[in-house]
Specification:
Number of helices: 6
Order of helices and strands: EEHHHEEEHEHEH
Helix content: 25-40%
Distance between the termini: 38 Å
Largest sheet: 4 strands, parallel
CATH class: Alpha Beta
Number of strands: 7
Strand content: 15-25%
Strand order of the largest sheet: 3-2-6-7
CATH superfamily: Uracil-DNA glycosylase-like domain
């Protein structure tokens, strides 16, 4: 059983919440979200907001604050082999009220099918907010080019 080691990122201006499933091995090592260099998350959101891709953790934090984005994951703890979402078992969900009680979140997005699956299974009924599915930025989702991801992810700007 691995417990999520990264605290949620948000502040009292966050109005978009983006949820992954569970941090990859690389993200757990770097202690911040989307830490794998092949994950397209930071490139996608940087391009969408017309900014240079943030690289350091301080730059990523500043980017998220400037753009009113909160980040966390659906899963608090689980059994997982490496970073493979397909191996996730024994899920305990995160309590999103930590963020929702403190920030004016208007919309919730899920990054990938695994986060969507566990959001619907464990969280949606408790908070009564439907999450919008976004295709995964993970390197495991190689079929989605940067351009295709950016087209799909534009919805976060609405």
């Amino acid at each position: 059983m691995i417990v999520h080691p990264i605290p949620p990122f948000y502040d009292d201006n966050s109005n978009i919440l983006i949820l992954g499933s569970f941090p990859s091995v690389k993200s757990r090592e770097t202690q911040f979200f989307y830490g794998h260099p092949q994950n397209k998350f930071w490139r996608v959101v940087g391009d969408l907001f017309g900014e240079k891709m943030p690289e350091s953790i301080p730059e990523k934090r500043e980017f998220l604050q400037r753009n009113r984005i909160a980040l966390w994951d659906v899963i608090h703890s689980c059994d997982i082999d490496g970073s493979a979402d397909s191996t996730i078992k024994n899920v305990t969900p995160n309590d999103l009220r930590v963020i929702l009680d403190a920030a004016p979140v208007k919309r919730i997005f899920v990054n990938g099918r695994t986060s969507e699956k566990y959001y619907k299974k464990y969280i949606e009924k408790d908070i009564d907010i439907k999450a919008v599915y976004l295709p995964s930025t993970s390197p495991a989702n190689a079929a989605w080019t940067l351009e295709k991801l950016e087209t799909a992810w534009k919805i976060i700007l609405d």
